[in-house]
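notes to self, project folder thing:

trying the whole complex as one job this time. last attempt i did each chain seperately and stitching them together was a nightmare. two parts in total, labels are on each line so i dont mix them up again. if this works i'll redo the older ones the same way
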Amino acid sequence: MNKIYLDNASTTPTDSRVLKAMEPYYNKIYGNAGSLHTAGRESKTAILKARKSIAQILNCKPEEIIFTGSGTESDNLAILGVARACARSLGLAKSNFCSSGECPQGDYPSSKNLFSSALSAHIITSNIEHHAVLYPCEQLEKEGFKVTSSKVDKDGILLLEDFKKVITDETVLISIMYANNEIGTIQPIEEIGKIIKEIRANRFKRNISTPIYFHTDACQAAGYLDLDVQKLGVDLLTLNGSKIYGPKGTGVLYVKAGTKIDPIVFGGGQENGKRSGTENISGIIGLAKALEISQATGKESAKEAKLRDYFIKEVSKKVSKVVLNGHAQKRLPNNINISILDIEGEAMLLWLDKYGIYCSTGSACDSQSLEPSHVILALSRPYEYANGNLRFTLGRSTTKKDLDYVLKVLPKIVADLRRISPVNVRV
Amino acid sequence: MKTKNTKKIKKLDVASSHSGEGWIYSDIVKSHFFKPHNFLAKLPKKGEFDAEGQVGSPQCGDVMKIWFKVDPKGPKGYPKIKKLKWRTFGCASAIAATSMFSVMVTEKGGMTVDQALKIKPQDIMSRLGGLPVRKVHCSVLCDKAFMQAANNYFRSKGQHEKIIVLGHKVIDKRLNITDHDIEDAVLEGARTLLDVQKKLKVGVGDPEAIPEIEQLIKFYLEKYYG
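result (full assembly):
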């Protein structure tokens, strides 16, 4: 049976060119980049080269690139690291005003002071972020931070007017994803970057020293969109290897020089003290190679966009009561996310799997929490839409023939499942 | 026989519940999902069935509807369920569980309504060769859909004394949490007081309720997984 992999937003296969680039770094060049001997220096040189290559793509300085263990880790470092560092510096600023003996000694404010500075520190994110952003934010709420979730419109695009209104003088960090992992919608990062620049200038004028930083999770975008951090106007950017035909377990966090950030992993002080742990040299080489390849293959995305639009058009002809989730144009070239009413996503997924078609669903039955996708719910759609949800994400190897096969099989599956369903929702 | 089944269930549960890597369906679940038995293909004609019952809602992810017909003079002279049909909106385990339930009720000449009412979720699970822990609540629904149908049946026959009213006892008075909520929490994977508290926030507002909650957790754990 033919296997049709349409789950490239979950993860991609590793490109053979990437594998080839990585191969020497397991047992030929294996020294610890922190060692002074020749073997160590070889590794160090290779990592520097990878760092430079990534910096060039991101249009930043090599020392602004931090290698991590995943996109999730980069998101966690960005959010926890920046928020805690900002709260600490706000606490310090407050304690500097004290002149009595009650003031804390040394560089650190008392825990009471830190807590109160956390209370006055504010973070903004969106209601369609990945859990790797949402859960660290929840953690920060427990630590006393204020968190606001800015809303998207029914097409899954951030409502900029609403977003502007929730920014306060206490806002220290804004984290908005570049492109969504479930519905592929592309967020107006450049515009948000400009808004934040204005706010920064305005705060400076009013003598407010509270910093404001902008982080974007670009894991899904990295394979398709421009990653120039100057143009985007971001202070922090997350990307990873597993979504761009690179190795799994590799991540990058771009951190603009001068950004206040505390580490979340402590140890040998690698990555400028921001992320300890012996460098994953083969992973770093592979990630750099994967990013080079994916940024060079611009034509691929036009091909995938064409296939995407073809599928969306055909599926709505062949299946009744089907809706597209997310904006039709402002979405990643490889993302198809639909809801099919009256039946449940996991059941469809398992039938498709039986036919060798691999996709994913935001249905409650498919999640650990038994809660349907927060992204589909954020589109102000009823629960029925979230539970009948399917995501097909195309890749470099996807052909029109593959999609035609899905278009042949899917209507049959839908008809069979609808025959045994007692639900008939009116649209 | 009983212990054998329990062992089987446990083995499958470990593989599926906390790994975060999906779950394993037994071959029986798969066969009932891909080839369901006794589903209602066409909407019923008037008088085709004696009663119907439905539970769930598409919002929460599962809906089950059951229709059945009783033969007043069954094979041995007393009323037995002759035909039981169903429709299910839900995941694979929900579909497979309803399918299996319909087989259990109608096989070997069929059950009486009273016998069918005695089928417990764990009986269905055993016949299915187990279900992943967090999927158990799906299969629990088909016995409830049947109970609704049976109540409708008793009502139509004037047997009001037989109607089953589910009594829910309020355990945490401040949050209005019942024994039924705790049962659901256990079915969804809670094993300890802490798990249940996390799921329901019980006992936080009413600490006096804690001993009773602990007893209920023990009771439901033994009932479903003991």
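what i see at first glance: Chain B touches chain A at residues 20, 33-34, 36, 39-41, 54, 58-65, 86-92, 94-95, 134-135, 137-138, 188 (CB under 8 Å).
need to look closer tmrw
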